[in-house]
């Protein structure tokens, strides 16, 4: 049997969940159902939201608001055709309902038709008395379209409606950053802080803007105010530590990083920064300790393994450097940075076959940096595998067609392979494109540079 809501004084959500556990059917006002459904949607409990919608529509079959929540779930689950059919029916009943236009906009957004979504949201704005959420949706659509100025203006309206809407505040600053308008961001944040002087989020963001302008003193002041506003704000301590590092104040930086560890669970990033500070202070034992703590905390953090590897590489302890980069590769063999580091270390150890293999893996996994091609060609040259060296440089030139380093190195390796015909062609081309960089060839291949053959070609092309 159906029970009236006032027979059960429990809150609607608790009462609804109680109903699901029994054979009873309770009656709820349409507004109660809306609250229940919103609760489940906000907490990501889609199955319960769908149950509530199904029951609510049996009790209130003519409720447009409940039907719109049904549409919202259909859109969320990408059942877009069914959602559009329902919206067509609802629009015949209520053409002035802004939520209909919002849901149609969501559908167009899902279909990547963001300009159509924007037009529908603008129509919803004309009909709505509460435009806050619509401006937020508009801002996101403009972001999808890379219209950062318009997105910024939309999110600014959200902040104007609710100055505690930190999500929109972050989006405003993101737009300023993308537009590289650091001055504008600083003015905006200072104006915001005049009205909200104890907003740690705004102080934190202001400090980051000052960093972008290399105004480190002002950045430190901003982070200090963020900490005054909230002495448990980890982000402010962390950013302050980074600024102190830039200023060479490594002991003070360490204090701030250690504070983040005391406030909350330790993070691998904090351990890594502390380790780097100790390394800059030439305290090798403490640097090693924190580097090891970094990879213990997060074995998948590539920067941690690279920090240990680089530590030993700088000490010219290449065997230990190789040991740790191999450990990193055992954990993540798909990381191109690890393979490149392995190649560099194996080159230092004159283990050229392994270096060649490591460079090959790095490239296959997507590392196409200029020095990767040049260093890999050097390995082939050291192995006297000149054909491979020429082939490697040809691949590199596809990515860097104007690179003088590749052009002159190719000339030298062709000469090592005794291919003077192609060497002459490549030298003429290199001189035509980058004659002022002939010193690269002179430095790496001095014996060939001094020959009459080379000097005649250079002289003929002056």
Summarize this structure briefly:
This protein has 462 residues and is mainly alpha-helical.
How would you characterize this protein structure?
It contains 28 helices and 2 strands. By secondary structure, the protein is mostly helical. It has a domain at 368-462: Tetratricopeptide repeat domain (Serine Threonine Protein Phosphatase 5, Tetratricopeptide repeat). The longest helix is centred in the last third of the chain and has 15 residues, at 420-434. The N and C termini lie far apart (101 Å). TPR repeats lie at residues 98-131, 132-165, 234-267, 302-335. Pfam families: ChAPs (PF09295), TPR_6 (PF13174), TPR_8 (PF13181).
Q: Describe the strand arrangement of the main beta sheet, using strand numbers.
A: 1-2
Structural class, from helix and strand content? mainly alpha
Topology order in helix (H) and strand (E) letters = EHEHHHHHHHHHHHHHHHHHHHHHHHHHHH
Residue stretches low in confidence (pLDDT < 50, at least 5 long) are: 1-10
> Averaged pLDDT, please?
90
Helix content: over 70%
What's the CATH topology label of the domain at 368-462?
Answer: Serine Threonine Protein Phosphatase 5, Tetratricopeptide repeat
For the termini, the CA-CA separation is: 101 Å
- So what's the overall shape? elongated
Organism: Maribacter arenosus
Keywords: TPR repeat
TPR repeats: 98-131, 132-165, 234-267, 302-335
Protein name: Tetratricopeptide repeat-containing protein
């Amino acid at each position: 049997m159906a029970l009236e809501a006032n027979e059960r004084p429990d809150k609607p959500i608790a009462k609804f969940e109680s109903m699901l556990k029994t054979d009873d059917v309770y009656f709820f006002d349409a507004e109660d159902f809306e609250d229940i459904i919103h609760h489940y949607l906000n907490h990501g409990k889609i199955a319960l939201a769908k149950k509530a919608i199904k029951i609510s529509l049996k009790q209130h079959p003519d409720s447009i608001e409940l039907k719109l929540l049904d549409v919202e779930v259909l859109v969320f689950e990408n059942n877009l055709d069914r959602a559009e059919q329902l919206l067509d029916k609802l629009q015949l009943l209520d053409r002035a309902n802004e939520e209909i236009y919002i849901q149609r906009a969501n559908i167009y957004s899902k279909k990547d038709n963001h300009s159509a979504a924007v037009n529908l949201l603008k129509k919803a704005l004309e009909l709505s008395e509460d435009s806050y959420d619509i401006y937020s949706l508009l801002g996101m659509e403009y972001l999808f379209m890379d219209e950062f100025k318009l997105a910024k203006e939309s999110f600014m309206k959200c902040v104007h409606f609710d100055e505690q809407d930190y999500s929109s505040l972050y989006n405003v600053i993101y737009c300023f950053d993308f537009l590289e308008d650091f001055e504008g961001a600083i003015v905006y944040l200072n104006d915001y802080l005049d009205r909200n002087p104890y907003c740690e989020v705004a102080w934190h963001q202001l400090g980051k803007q000052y960093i972008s302008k290399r105004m480190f003193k002002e950045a430190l002041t901003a982070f200090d105010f963020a900490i005054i506003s909230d002495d448990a704000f980890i982000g402010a301590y962390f950013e302050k530590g980074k600024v102190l590092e830039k200023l060479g104040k490594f002991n003070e930086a360490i204090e701030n990083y250690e504070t983040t560890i005391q406030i909350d669970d330790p993070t691998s990033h904090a351990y890594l920064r502390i380790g780097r500070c100790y390394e800059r202070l030439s305290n090798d034992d403490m640097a090693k300790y924190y580097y090891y703590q970094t990879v213990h905390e997060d074995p998948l953090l590539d920067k941690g393994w690279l920090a240990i590897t680089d530590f030993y590489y700088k000490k010219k302890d290449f065997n230990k450097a190789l040991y740790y980069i191999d450990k990193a590769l055992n954990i993540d063999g798909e990381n191109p940075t690890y393979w490149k580091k392995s190649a560099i270390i194996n080159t230092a150890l004159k283990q050229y076959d392994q270096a060649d293999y490591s460079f090959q893996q790095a490239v296959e996994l997507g590392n196409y940096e200029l020095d990767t091609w040049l260093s890999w060609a050097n390995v082939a040259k050291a192995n006297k595998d000149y054909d491979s060296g020429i082939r490697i440089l040809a691949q590199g030139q596809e990515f860097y067609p104007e690179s003088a380093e590749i052009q002159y190195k190719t000339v030298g390796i062709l000469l090592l392979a005794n291919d003077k015909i192609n060497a002459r062609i490549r030298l003429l081309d290199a001189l035509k494109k980058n004659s002022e960089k002939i010193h690269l060839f002179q430095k790496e291949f001095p014996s060939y540079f001094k020959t009459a053959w080379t000097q005649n070609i250079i002289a003929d092309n002056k």
